[in-house]
């Protein structure tokens, strides 16, 4: 979406407000005027979003995984009998964004769809994929979109486990002036156990830093999101004449084997 269009939407679009029974706990909406934010989730259906699952064409919501239940955008595995190899899914925004502040309220629920030990890392593991090409750009068997993944993690009840981390499918970042090619880098957040609601926020500048916040606290920061030329999907992107530095794009919510719910997804222009 162009910045002028987004600014217009901010003026003319009212924020979708959930029922009082759903809005308990700490709320980022108390920290700023609701008129500054545009809701990207209407609380009723997936209007404005497009699913893409590995092994399926764009638009196929495999096994009704992404759904709206009781006003909550839910990643559910109730209709899955088995989990095939890397059958991850992503729910993309239909619009593209550049300079913005994104905030998402999430909580993990239930059990993983698979008990395969090789997916133990995906226990209470999900993500928000930033600065991605549109869903249509993903290849049929591509498991993750090219993006900066703001990783959302839940605790196991005892061990420490940070959230708001950074993973980099088909990308690299610059941090403190140095190129970082490590796939995942941890934040300095606290651990959030159980099914509690947590606020994730990202402050995204097309030409500058990207910052991750958890419950209002800055936990991670980096610069210059760029395509990894050594990755096969990245090489194809660059061979097509696309730029190495990613300065705008869509974002998506993951379905990565563990059920999760979102009750607010809001964006505010920084232009």
Protein described:
With 271 residues, the chain is mainly β. It is built from two helices and 17 strands. Strands 1, 3, 4, 6, 10, 11, 13, 14, 15 and 17 form a ten-stranded antiparallel sheet that branches. A hairpin with a 2-residue loop joins strand 10 and strand 11. The radius of gyration is 18 Å and the shape is globular. Mean pLDDT is 89; it is low at 1-33.
Short description:
It is built from two helices and 17 strands.
Keywords:
disordered N terminus, seven-stranded antiparallel β-sheet, mainly beta, 271 residues, ten-stranded antiparallel β-sheet, 2 helices, 7% helix
From the N-terminal CA to the C-terminal CA, the straight-line distance is: 12 Å
Percent of residues in β-strands: 35-45%
Put simply, the count of helices is: 2
Number of strands: 17
Mean pLDDT: 89
Q: Roughly how much helix do the residues carry, as a percent range? A: under 10%
Uncertain regions spanning at least 5 consecutive residues: 1-33
Overall shape: globular
Largest sheet: 10 strands, antiparallel
Rg calc: 18 Å
| H-E order | HEEEEEEEEEEEEEEEHEE
Category from helices, strands and their pairing:
mainly beta
């Amino acid at each position: 979406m162009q910045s002028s269009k987004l600014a217009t939407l901010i003026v003319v679009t009212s924020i979708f407000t959930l029922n009082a029974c759903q809005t308990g706990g700490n709320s980022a909406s108390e920290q700023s005027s609701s008129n500054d934010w545009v809701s990207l989730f209407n609380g009723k259906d997936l209007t404005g979003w497009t699913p893409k699952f590995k092994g399926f064409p764009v638009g196929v919501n495999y096994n009704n995984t992404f759904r709206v239940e009781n006003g909550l955008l839910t990643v559910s595995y109730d209709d899955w009998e088995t989990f095939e190899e890397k059958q991850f899914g992503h729910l993309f925004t239909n619009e593209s964004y550049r300079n913005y502040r994104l905030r998402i309220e999430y909580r993990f629920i239930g059990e993983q769809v698979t008990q395969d030990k090789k997916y133990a890392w995906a226990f209470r593991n999900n993500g928000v994929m930033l600065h991605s090409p549109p869903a249509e750009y993903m290849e049929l068997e591509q498991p993750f979109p090219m993006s900066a993944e703001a990783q959302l993690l839940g605790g196991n009840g005892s061990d420490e486990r940070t959230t708001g981390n950074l993973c980099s499918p088909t990308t690299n970042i610059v941090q403190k002036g140095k190129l970082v090619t490590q796939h995942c880098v941890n934040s300095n957040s606290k651990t959030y156990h159980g099914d509690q609601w947590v606020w994730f926020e990202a402050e995204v500048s097309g030409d500058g830093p990207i910052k991750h916040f958890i419950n209002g606290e800055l936990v991670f920061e980096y610069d210059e999101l760029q395509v990894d030329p050594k990755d096969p999907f990245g090489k194809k992107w660059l061979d097509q004449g696309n730029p190495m530095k990613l300065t705008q794009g869509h974002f998506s919510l993951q379905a990565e084997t563990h059920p999760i719910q979102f009750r607010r997804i809001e964006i505010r222009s920084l232009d």
